[in-house]
Amino acid sequence: MEEPEVHPDLEPIAFLLGRWEGAGVGGYPTIESFNFGQEIEFGHNGKPFLSYVSRTWLLDQDGNRVRPLATESGYWRAQPNRQLEVVLAHPTGIVEIYVGEVVFHKIELQTDVVARTVTAKEYTAGRRLYGLVKGNLMWAYDMAATGHPLTSHMSAELKKVG
């Protein structure tokens, strides 16, 4: 089957399409700093949204995989005037809706809605920044959780693969 054409509404975020891999750093007031590996895949089916899956794993000092960390999946929905809506689900019982804006190859998002199951950890807000820098996808994530305000949590640099 032939790959469908990218929907014209996706033009501002089409640079995300494909598979990205790399590494980053994380930390939070309640945990020790850590290094992680990550793979992200953005896909499409010809409709005006991107599918999204991210997987991360803990890395040791030598860069070897130790164990799985977070995973999330969802949809990135382009809106008029370079606005963006992102819906993410986490297996830890959290669902987030982000809203934001695309300016050239930079995306700024903040949570509009956070919903949690009764067993999920306390998490109240997130802010994400994505940017294409010299062909690499750079991103940073701030979160508000466990009584802390928005605080830097993770960032990474990913290279397009395949």
UniProtKB/TrEMBL annotation:
UniProt keyword Transmembrane helix, yes or no: no
GO molecular function: heme binding; metal ion binding; peroxynitrite isomerase activity
Motif (GXWXGXG): 18-24
Cofactor notes: Binds 1 heme b group per subunit, that coordinates a highly solvent-exposed Fe(III) atom.
Assigned EC number: 5.99.-.-
UniProt KW keywords: Heme, Iron, Isomerase, Metal-binding
UniProt xrefs under SUPFAM superfamilies: Lipocalins
Protein name: Peroxynitrite isomerase
Residues binding heme b: T30, K121, H153
Lineage top rank: taxon: Bacteria
Free-text note on domains in this protein's UniProt record: Forms a 10-stranded antiparallel beta-barrel structure able to accommodate a hydrophobic ligand in its interior. In fact, this fold hosts the heme group, which is located in a wide surface cleft.
InterPro entries (alphabetical): Calycin (IPR012674), Nb(III)_bact/plant (IPR022939), Nitrobindin (IPR045165), THAP4-like_heme-bd (IPR014878)
Family label: Belongs to the nitrobindin family.
UniProt organism field: Nonomuraea montanisoli
PANTHER family for the chain: PEROXYNITRITE ISOMERASE THAP4, THAP4 PROTEIN
UniProt keyword Iron present: yes
THAP4-like heme-binding domain mapped to chain residues: 9-160
Pfam families: THAP4_heme-bd (PF08768)
Catalytic activities: peroxynitrite = nitrate
Cofactors that this protein relies on: heme b
Enzyme class of the recorded protein, top EC level: isomerase
Pathway(s) the chain acts in: Nitrogen metabolism
Record's function text: Heme-binding protein able to scavenge peroxynitrite and to protect free L-tyrosine against peroxynitrite-mediated nitration, by acting as a peroxynitrite isomerase that converts peroxynitrite to nitrate. Therefore, this protein likely plays a role in peroxynitrite sensing and in the detoxification of reactive nitrogen and oxygen species (RNS and ROS, respectively). Is able to bind nitric oxide (NO) in vitro, but may act as a sensor of peroxynitrite levels in vivo.
